[in-house]
UniProtKB/TrEMBL annotation:
Gene3D superfamilies recorded: Winged helix-like DNA-binding domain superfamily/Winged helix DNA-binding domain
DNA-binding residues: 43-142
Protein name per UniProt: Transcriptional regulatory protein
Record flagged with keyword DNA-binding: yes
Length: 146
């Protein structure tokens, strides 16, 4: 296939050579896969019961209410939530979210996590979702995944 252009719900596919063979390959691929199973089309909503995170629309719902998050708040929450149980150091969080070298900017990370907790946790003093791992960093509570 030479080009793949998507306009709304119309897909235009062009071929360089042997159109019939490429069309058969495409039809075989489409019949073998459900849309949701195609690469890059996995469910983009993380469901943790009362907390739902939609990556496609960059929205967060807590107890059925839409939660307003800043860009950095969403990026940190999504990073942790899409990797439940994995421990991230403050440095790892910073370099992945800010996409620049970490120069001891742990106050930025800690402050944003504190704000996220106030917005999504039933009791921010006793977090259920974003947990501290003493001396190591933070992790998202994977036991809450639906």
């Amino acid at each position: 296939m030479k080009g793949f252009y998507k306009m709304g719900r119309v897909v235009v596919v062009t071929f360089d050579e042997n159109e019939e063979e490429k069309l058969n390959e495409l039809l075989h691929f489409l019949s073998a896969k459900k849309y949701s199973e195609m690469p890059g089309k996995q469910n983009r909503v993380l469901d943790y019961g009362a907390l739902k995170i939609n990556a496609e629309y960059r929205s967060v719902e807590s107890n059925g209410e839409l939660v307003q998050l800043t860009n950095y708040e969403f990026e940190i929450l999504y990073l942790l939530a899409k990797n439940p149980g994995r421990i991230f150091s403050k440095e790892q969080i910073y370099t992945q979210v800010w996409k620049e070298p970490y120069y001891g900017a742990e106050d930025n990370v800690m402050g944003i996590i504190r704000r996220i907790r106030k917005k999504i946790e039933p009791d921010s003093a006793k977090p259920r979702y974003i947990l501290n791992v003493w001396g190591m960093g933070y992790k998202f509570n994977g036991e809450l995944m639906k």
